[in-house]
Amino acid sequence: MTGDQIRATLRTLPFRPFRLNLADQRTFDVLHPDFALLFPNRRHVMVFSHENPESWQLIDVGLIVSLEPIDDQPSASQAA
């Protein structure tokens, strides 16, 4: 994963929520482009919690193994 790939994902219109998967099995959800900040050097990304905007994580881009879209539509079992 590269900083350029993260930057492109953040700038995609319309924005689609995504999950960052890290090498240590942690995951971070980015539900809005305002909840992630890619540093100018593209080596770090700051991800803010959607539950508590004062909570954030600084992530080394080299630790991100993949990005996956988050299905923002509730499944049939969640809707019931």
Brief descriptors of the model:
alpha+beta; 80 residues; 16% helix; single chain; SH3 type barrels
The shape, in one word, is globular
Rg calc? 13 Å
CATH class equals Mainly Beta
- Strand share of the residues? 35-45%
CATH architecture level-2 label? Roll
Helix content: 10-25%
| Count of the domains | 1
Q: Order of strands in the sheet with the most strands? A: 2-1-6
Low-confidence residue ranges: 75-80
Structure commentary:
- With 80 residues, the chain is an alpha+beta fold.
- The protein has a single domain (3-70), classed as SH3 type barrels (Roll), CATH 2.30.30.
- It has two helices and six strands; from the N terminus they run αββββββα.
- A three-stranded antiparallel sheet has the order 2-1-6, with no helix packed on it.
- The radius of gyration is 13 Å and the shape is globular.
- The N and C termini lie far apart (37 Å).
- The model is unreliable at 75-80 (pLDDT under 50).
Show the helix and strand layout.
Layout: H1 3-11, E1 18-22, E2 27-30, E3 36-38, E4 44-48, E5 56-60, E6 64-69, H2 76-79
Antiparallel strand pairs: 1-2, 1-6, 3-4, 4-5
Can you describe this structure in just a few lines?
With 80 residues, the protein is of the alpha+beta class.
